[in-house]
Amino acid sequence: YWIATSEYIFLDNAFLPLAYCNLSKKTKVIQLWHGCNAIKKFGQSYNTGLLKKLEKKLAEKYTYLILNSENTREKYKEAFGVDDSKILVTGSPRVDIFFDEEKCSILRSEFYKENTLLEEKKIILYAPTFRDNQSNKLSEELYQLADGINEDSVILLRLHPSLNESIIIPKKYKSKIINMSGYNNLVQLLLVSDVLITDYSSIIYEYSILERPMIFYSYDFKEYSNNGRGFYEDYENYVPGTVCYSLQDLIIEIRKLEVDIDKVKYFKIKNYEYRDGKNMQRILRILN
Fold it and tell me: Cys-Cys with 205: which of 36, 54, 134, 243 at CB 3.0–4.6 Å?
């Protein structure tokens, strides 16, 4: 009923049932997507068979696909299977909040009210990409990582929902590792963290707005390159931080944390044409 009677439909994912809906001619479908850009391939660039056909059929319903930068155009045209007429480079509304210092300050304060013991800690946010059969390796390496970091540091763990419940943190490590995978406000976690550890996740695009250090723990880079989704970019030269291929290298990198922030700033400018917090306003002006 709501789909049939709506003038506007905003999506942030591949809502496949919409592919089979007969929409009114007045209905505008705006795909905002949940990632600001992508390192690893997705959508039409990667999927096959029925899923690829369904995603293509869904893309035919789109009125507009929202991008943050011209830098993303060709990549997203391929991934979504759309042409230039459907693309709007207005900036994504999901990042507007990062440019509102008052709101960011409130979110940081609210986080520390709930987590008072973390206020004096150096916060390391670890947000790895989902992998099959990852939980056992992840658990063991987390414990080693916790042993290797300084006493004034804490690891906030942000996992894919399907892995969240498979991670059990022993009492010994509860002060050094906190599983925040079920925490609803990812923006808060980004705002309070001092450094991000990830691998192939699009979270780096949001984090670059904050101009803070990132470290890339890509222990399975060759396997992921050859047998995984594959990359749109030359990964090792593209990411705005040091790439570590072993846990030992990761621990060393965290301890010294010599990150080229200028590279992070360049990455931010390259991926965000608009950095004024007015992306939603631009979209609404076009729709109205």
Answer: 36
